[in-house]
Amino acid sequence: MSEAKNSSNTRKKIQQQISLLRQQLNHDNNDLEFETHLHMIRDLESLLKTKS
User: Fold this and answer.
1) CA nearest to 39, candidates 49, 29, 47
2) Interior/surface letters 43-52, b for 16+ CB within 10 angstroms, e for the rest
3) Distance CA 21, CA 38 (A)
4) pLDDT at 5
5) CA 19, chain centre distance (Å)
6) What is d(CA 47, CA 2) in angstroms, rounded to the nearest whole number?
7) SS3 track for the chain
8) Which ranges of the chain have pLDDT less than 70?
9) Which contiguous run of DSSP H or E holds residue 2?
10) Residues 6 or more apart from 28 whose CB is under 8 A from it?
11) What pLDDT is stored for residue 46 in this prediction?
12) How many Å apart are CA 46 and CA 38, to the nearest integer?
């Protein structure tokens, strides 16, 4: 598999994970869960920005 294809697949998976975490924010039961998921989202978004 080519490097560009791998990069595209990885990017897609990260974007899917961000979407799932955003959905989870609505179901978090406490501030710690919410903040943890929000931090994960920000980290993943930062990763996408640095790799673009």
Assistant:
1) 47
2) ebeeeeeeee
3) 8
4) 83
5) 7
6) 21
7) CCHHHHHHHHHHHHHHHHHHHHHHHCCCCCHHHHHHHHHHHHHHHHHHHHHC
8) 1, 52
9) none
10) 34, 37
11) 96
12) 12
Size (the chain), residues: 52
In whole angstroms, how far apart are CA 44 and each of 1, 8, 24, 33, 49? 24, 15, 15, 17, 9
**Token reading at 27:** 């179901």
Read off the amino acid at residue 50: T
Contact status, residue 18 vs residue 41, Cβ threshold 8 Å: yes
Residue 37 CA to residue 18 CA, distance in Å, equals: 9
Report long-range pairs for 4-12 (Cβ below 8 Å, ≥24 apart): 7/51, 11/48, 11/51
* Amino acid (one-letter) located at 41: I
Amino acid at 35: E
